[in-house]
Design a protein that fits this description.
This protein has 155 residues and is an alpha+beta fold. The protein has 2 domains: 57 residues, no CATH class; 73 residues, no CATH class. Helices cover 32% and strands 35% of the residues. It has a 4-stranded antiparallel beta sheet, with no helix packed on it. It has a 3-stranded antiparallel beta sheet with strand order 1-2-3, with no helix packed on it. A hairpin with a 3-residue loop joins strand 5 and strand 6. Helix 1 runs antiparallel to helix 2.
Length: 155
C-alpha cells in the first residue's frame, strides 16, 4: 500500500510539473502573438522561452519529472508570398509581400490619375496615384509580416 501511495505521489508531481510547463509555454506564446509588437517572434525565441519554462517547472523541489527538448530546426519554414489589394481614391494597388521581397504587381489608376512607382527603398515600395486635385500614396514593406501605410492628400 505504501509503495502504491509513493508511485501515485510521484506520478502526481510529474503530471503537475508537465502541466505547469505546458501552461507557461502556451501563456508565453499567446502573450507574444497577441502583443502589439512590430516584429514577429522568431522560432528560436519561442524554443528558448519554452526551454526556460520547462527548466523552471522541472526544478520544482520534490519533482521527479524530466523534460526532453528537441533542437529547433536549422532553417525556418518557407513563408509563402502574400498578395494584398488596396483601394485608394486614386486607384487600385496590388502588392506582393514576402520576407525577401516586396513589389508592386499591379496598379490601376482611376480616371484622371497618373501613376508613379518608386524603386524599392529599404526593401519596400511606394506607389503614388496623382491627379490635379488629389494624391493617393501607399508605402508597403515587410517587417515580420506585410506592413502598409496609405495616405490620401488633397492638393
Amino acid at each position: 500500500m505504501r509503495r502504491l501511495l509513493t508511485f501515485t505521489a510521484a506520478w502526481l508531481l510529474a503530471a503537475v510539473a508537465a502541466t505547469t510547463a505546458a501552461w507557461q509555454g502556451v501563456s508565453l506564446v499567446t502573450h507574444e502573438v497577441t502583443d502589439d509588437r512590430p516584429a514577429a517572434l522568431a522560432a528560436s525565441d519561442v524554443q528558448s522561452k519554452l526551454d526556460d519554462a520547462a527548466a523552471t517547472a522541472t526544478s520544482t523541489p520534490g519533482s521527479t519529472a524530466t523534460t526532453t527538448t528537441t533542437s529547433p530546426p536549422t532553417t525556418a519554414p518557407a513563408v509563402q508570398p502574400v498578395r494584398e489589394t488596396y483601394q485608394l481614391e486614386g486607384g487600385v494597388v496590388t502588392i506582393q509581400f514576402s520576407p525577401t521581397e516586396v513589389r508592386a504587381v499591379g496598379v490601376t489608376p482611376n480616371q484622371g490619375f497618373g501613376v508613379k512607382k518608386n524603386e524599392p527603398e529599404d526593401g519596400g515600395w511606394r506607389v503614388e496615384l496623382e491627379s490635379d486635385s488629389h494624391r493617393s500614396r501607399l508605402d508597403a514593406w515587410w517587417d515580420g509580416g506585410p506592413q502598409v501605410r496609405p495616405r490620401e492628400d488633397a492638393h
